[in-house]
């Protein structure tokens, strides 16, 4: 049983104070239905990915909120796996469709983060970390700073290599109207940016963004469709202190290995990737964990320009989390939507030539959950 | 709820385990200096260290005395310190917990 992407829609990512979460959900699902040529009557189930609404607005039971919004009674399931919520929702929707019980599923990821102060949102985001980590008063930037500090020490690279990730992703975002920060930055901009958690500076960190993205998935055969060739999840300890190494994510290694096996593809078949660059160091580690670069060499993707849209393995053509933005539960779905748009030839100024297969990697927390999806032209 | 809110039952439960870790020594695996500001815009910074302890377990704690230079592989020791900076009510408990000291 194959699963195809029929259509999708991404809202603008950014500070969207005029929009509530419900507004963003509605905009994205209407856009996805229009893009797929279906109506809500054709949809058999909805997966809604969201991490923070229960904390920020005391609203659980999002499934019933959507039922009321659309006046429907189909199965609606909320998915939460921290920042991997979107990727996990796609995985669960694929599994649901493979049971052949239903034909079309809507997958929506939405997050409202900028209505509150940065301090409050940082506190709520730490619910993706362990109790021990929260008690240490560390922030999420701090957790990735620990990873970066260790990585820079062990592999003898500097902040300049980290800056090149941010510069590349901002370049890609400058070609994406839906990005939170659709502009380029320079190394000087990076150097002048404030320290957040050493060695990470402001431009090493993805922003707090509002936004939503939706996809329509179907198991109805399509000629020349875009197929989700594989979708795999793996998990790992929530605490960094429980892991043998903090410079690799076991969950990504297992999920990517299983995704390649499920799809019958090899790394050489992958033309481009969307990886989870919540912080610049996370992109480097993702490329190494998936196997595109040897340990300690993931920074070469940006340094040697291999990760640019004109390079040999484009990385984060959307602008990544760093520059496109990171409304946490929308991210995993946006990654797959970016790959879908590239394969459909809809990316205009950032369009890749001759791409047929893309891979997305979406993680929760510091790699406690990892989802890898491989999408290809059928 | 914010980071200064304490669940007193949880605090009481966790306080029974503190003696198992107090005094243990370890080596720094990694560290970071967090630059933060409170709601009134006052800037502050503090260090958090991830260290591997002599009992083979790793632990992440705030560091006492941030003025000292911190490097990977430095030695640290677990000490008991006040962990919540301020309490607004006279009847609030004074909260202690573990920190690393170089």
List the topology elements.
The complex is a heterodimer of chains A (378) and B (102).
Chain A: E1 4-10, H1 21-36, E2 45-49, H2 53-56, H3 62-70, E3 76-79, H4 85-98, E4 104-111, H5 118-125, H6 131-135, H7 140-155, H8 159-173, H9 187-192, E5 195-197, E6 200-201, E7 211-218, E8 226-235, H10 250-263, E9 272-274, H11 280-290, H12 300-303, H13 320-324, H14 328-344, E10 357-364, E11 369-377
Parallel strand pairs in A: 2-3, 2-4, 9-10
Antiparallel strand pairs in A: 1-7, 1-8, 4-7, 5-6, 8-11, 10-11
Helix pairs in contact in A: 4-14, 8-11
Chain B: H1 8-15, H2 18-21, E1 25-37, E2 43-53, E3 58-62, E4 75-82, E5 96-101
Antiparallel strand pairs in B: 1-2, 1-4, 2-3, 4-5
Q: In percent, how helical is the residue content of chain A?
A: 25-40%
What strand line-up does the widest sheet of chain A have?
A: 3-2-4-7-1-8-11-10-9
Sheet of most strands of chain B? 5 strands, antiparallel
Quaternary class = heterodimer
Content-based structural category of chain B: mainly beta
SS summary, helix count of chain B: 2
β content of chain A, as a range?
15-25%
Determine the fraction of residues in helical runs of chain B and give it as a percent range. Answer: 10-25%
Question: What is the helix/strand order of chain A?
Answer: EHEHHEHEHHHHHEEEEHEHHHHEE
Task: Please state the average pLDDT score of chain A.
Answer: 96
Query: Helices and strands of chain B, in N-to-C order?
Result: HHEEEEE
Mean pLDDT of chain B equals 84
Cα distance spanning the termini of chain A = 13 Å
Class derived from helix and strand content of chain A: alpha/beta
- How many β-strand runs of chain A? 11
Shape summary of chain A: globular
Output the radius of gyration of chain B: 15 Å
Question: Beta-strand level of the residues of chain B, as a percent range?
Answer: 35-45%
Strand order of the largest sheet of chain B: 3-2-1-4-5
